[in-house]
Design brief:
With 403 residues, the protein is an alpha+beta fold. It has four domains: 8-82, ACT domain (Alpha-Beta Plaits); 111-178, Roll (Ubiquitin-like (UB roll)), CATH 3.10.20; 183-237 and 245-275 and 339-403, no CATH class; 280-335, no CATH class. The chain contains ten helices and 22 strands. It has helices at 3-10, 22-31, 56-63, 78-87, 89-106, 119-131, 146-156, 184-187, 235-238, 344-359, and strands spanning 12-18, 36-43, 46-52, 69-76, 111-115, 160-168, 171-178, 191-195, 199-208, 210-211, 218-219, 224-227, 253-269, 273-274, 277-289, 292-297, 307-318, 321-335, 339-340, 365-377, 380-392, 394-398. The strands form six sheets. The chain has a five-stranded antiparallel sheet. It has a four-stranded antiparallel sheet with strand order 2-3-1-4. A four-stranded antiparallel sheet has the order 10-12-8-22, with no helix packed on it. Strand 17 and strand 18 form a beta hairpin. The chain is elongated and about 120 Å long.
């Protein structure tokens, strides 16, 4: 922060000093730590200058010694502004009440608009919003984030295909799309379940259709796992058409969990290092006004060593206009001493497994791994790994029935 900003924050006083020993008086004040600016010599025994309010006691103490008189001409700075406001209590009270009222009005939810949904579903969404605390006339401070509201609505209202939630000024605007339901008899098409990749079958859950493979059987990519054809169209089945339609073809559904394999290559540094934190944190708060930063609480924690600092800001708006005031929070996490990660192979396996899980379905499970090859080159360790995975390999394949 610049010196003139700090001086204005603490207070400045323009004074006029008269006396025969002005030079000696000013030298004695500066030796005591006083700061003088804007010095103007009116006459040989008369000087005008600007001093800091916190140095006022130094001048008062030394003026008798050097037989000088001090006259105050003007006062500047925050302390004098506060003093003037306190002197006019009614104006100060009205000003503070007005600021509070504006802040409350600007941070109150005044309207919730829902578009794109039929009345029945719109009423359901409104009921859910009330359960989340998103209601008209309530303060938005502490209210759920629009992204969180969107996620909850999609989870709690099954008939919603998609809904957008946006906070605009003092209103929430929602636009939803309803799911279209079709008659299952019209949408069902003959289909089989086929293998999307090779593997050894471990579990089968066929809800519709007739399984064609068994547990512990090895299958290749494209192998038919379950067919939607319920009964073969033979002479023998034709005799029992009263009990079941001969050659009826439906859409096969279900899951086939198989053991599959994935090969992965990864490189890790020879001398990999790891930094850990104990999870405990200390915070420092400060109020930012433009380029000025005023510490509020916890500034003494910044003197700690070996910490990791994460900074966040909280801003406020007034009727859609962002206020120049912000709250800055610095979270400091104590770090343990840097420790070498000696098990490079283990670190490589963890990293490769993490990358593999991002490519697999959520239901897939990595049940084992094996190091096929390990080689050191160019300051790194190259690993070739084989992962064993249990996943659903059944995919739907629609078929066209012949005559």
């Amino acid at each position: 922060m610049a010196r003139n900003q700090l001086d204005f924050l603490y207070g400045l006083v323009t004074v006029r000093v008269k006396g025969a020993l002005i030079e000696a008086f000013l030298q004695a004040c500066t030796r005591e730590g006083a700061y003088i600016t804007n010095v103007k010599q009116v006459s040989d025994k008369d000087v005008q200058m600007t001093i800091r309010l916190k140095d006022w006691m130094i001048y008062r103490r030394l003026r008798k010694k050097y037989r000088c008189k001090i006259h105050i001409i003007a006062r500047h700075g925050i302390p004098f502004l506060i003093h003037r406001l306190l002197a006019k209590k009614a104006v100060l009270a009205a000003f503070l009440c007005g600021i509070c009222a504006l802040f409350l009005l600007a941070n109150t939810l005044w309207s919730v608009q829902i578009k794109g949904l039929p009345p029945e579903l719109e009423a359901t969404v409104e009921s859910q919003l009330e359960s989340y605390g998103v209601t008209e006339g309530k303060l938005t401070i502490g209210m759920k984030d629009p992204n969180e509201v969107q996620r909850l609505l999609l989870e709690d209202v099954p008939d919603l295909l998609w809904i957008g939630v946006k906070k605009k000024g003092t209103s929430y605007q929602l636009y939803g799309v309803m799911k279209t339901r079709q008659d299952p008899d019209e949408t069902t098409r003959p289909a089989d379940l086929v293998a999307s990749k090779k593997g050894i079958i471990k579990k089968m859950f066929i809800t519709k259709g007739r399984p064609l493979v068994s547990v512990n059987q090895f299958v290749k990519k494209g192998t038919v796992l379950a067919t939607g054809k319920l009964k073969e169209d033979t002479n023998e089945t034709a005799k029992d058409e009263s009990e079941e339609d001969s050659g009826k073809y439906i859409e096969a559904e279900g899951e086939v969990i198989a053991e599959t394999w994935y090969r992965a290559e990864i490189q890790v540094p020879k001398d990999q290092q790891l930094q850990l934190t104990d999870g405990e944190k200390s915070s420092a708060y400060s109020l930012g006004i433009g380029s000025i930063k005023i510490p509020i609480w916890g500034w003494w924690n910044k003197d700690e060593e070996n910490v990791r600092v994460e900074t966040s800001q909280k801003k406020w708006d007034l009727f859609g206009w962002e206020l120049p005031i912000r709250l800055e929070v610095e979270d400091m996490y104590a770090q343990e001493d840097v420790q070498p990660a000696n098990d490079r192979v283990k670190q490589g396996i963890v990293a490769a497994k993490r990358d593999l899980k991002q490519k697999l379905d959520e239901e897939a499970e990595v049940i084992g791994e094996k190091v096929l090859h390990e080689r050191k080159e160019n300051g790194k360790v190259k690993l070739i790994l084989l992962f064993k995975v249990h996943e659903n390999i059944a995919v739907t394949k629609y078929v066209t029935q012949g005559d």
